[in-house]
Amino acid sequence: MNRQDKIIQLELAGDFAGAEKRARKWTVDEPGEMWSWLMLAETLMFQNRMDESLEAMERPTGEDRHHPMFYRLVVLAGLRAKAFTAAHGGLFAARVAGLPEAILSDLETAVTKQGLLSLEGAFPDTENPDERWRTLLPPMWHRQKQAVRLSWGAVGDLVWVFHTDFLDLSIRFQRGEKATAWKLFPAAYEFVNERNAGASRLPLHRRKPQPQMLQCWSALRIAASLHLFGAFPDMSAPNTMRFNSQYEWLEVGSRHEGSYAVFNSTGLASGVQDILSRIPEPSVSLEGPDDRIAEAFPWLSHSLADDVMQRLGICTVAR
Known about the structure:
7 strands, Serine Threonine Protein Phosphatase 5, Tetratricopeptide repeat
C-alpha cells in the first residue's frame, strides 16, 4: 500500500491524527511531491484546521497548481472555510483541467448545496475575506480592482460580445483608418499596450492594426460570474463552454490566448446582463444592445479562430 492509500485508509477510519502524522512525514521526505501536500491539506481540512490546510495547499507550485485534483481540494476546503468564490473557481478550473465527470458531479452537488450566490447577490454566509484562497487559482479568480466593461450586439442570427472601450476604435480600423487612430483612444491604447508588452519594440501607433489586439480578452469572466449562481457549463469542445437554457445558449471559449462569447438570442444576452449586475463585487459588466458591434464585426471577426466560425456556420472567407 502506497503512502497516499495509507493516509486515505486512516482518514476513513477516523484516525486523522495518524493520517496527519504520516502526511507530515511525507512532506519532509518528498517536499516537491504535490500529493504529500494535498494529503496533508486534506487531513487538516477534515479536522477543520482551515488556516493550516490553506498553508499546505500553498506549497505546490508550477504545473501542480493546475492539476485537477488540486482544484478538487480547493473546492472542498473552500466550502469548509466559507471561501465561496474560491470554491467556485476550483470547480470551474477543475472542469477545464479535465477532472473526471463523476468527481465533478459530486463537487457540483456540494457547491450547489453550500455555496451558491442568491439572485439578491448574497452567499449563504459571510464570505471568508482571506485573499489567499483566491490566489490558489488562476488570475481570473483573483479580486479585481474594477470590472471590465463588455457590450453585446446582434450580428445576423447571433449576438457577439466585445470590449466596450474597443468598439469605436475597431470601427475606425474597419473603415480603413491607420494605426494613428490609437492616439484618440488612450484607455484602449494603455490596456492593449500592457497586454502585449514585449511582443514588439514598435509602439502600437506605428504598427499595423491587428484584430487580435482588440479581441474579447475577458469573456471567460462572464462564464465565471454565471458559475457563482449555479450555472455550470458543458464542455462542448476543447476550451469551449456551453450554457444551455431550453432553445437558447451562450458559448464561451478561449483561443489564441484570448477568449470569446456568443449568444444565440438577444433575450438570453439581456438576461445575463441582468444577472451579472447583481454580483456584489463584479469582475465584469455587460451592456447592450450595442449597434456598434455589427459595424465593427467584419474587422473584429478576424480575431476569432476558424474552428469557432465554422462550428457556428459563419463563412471564414467572406467575413
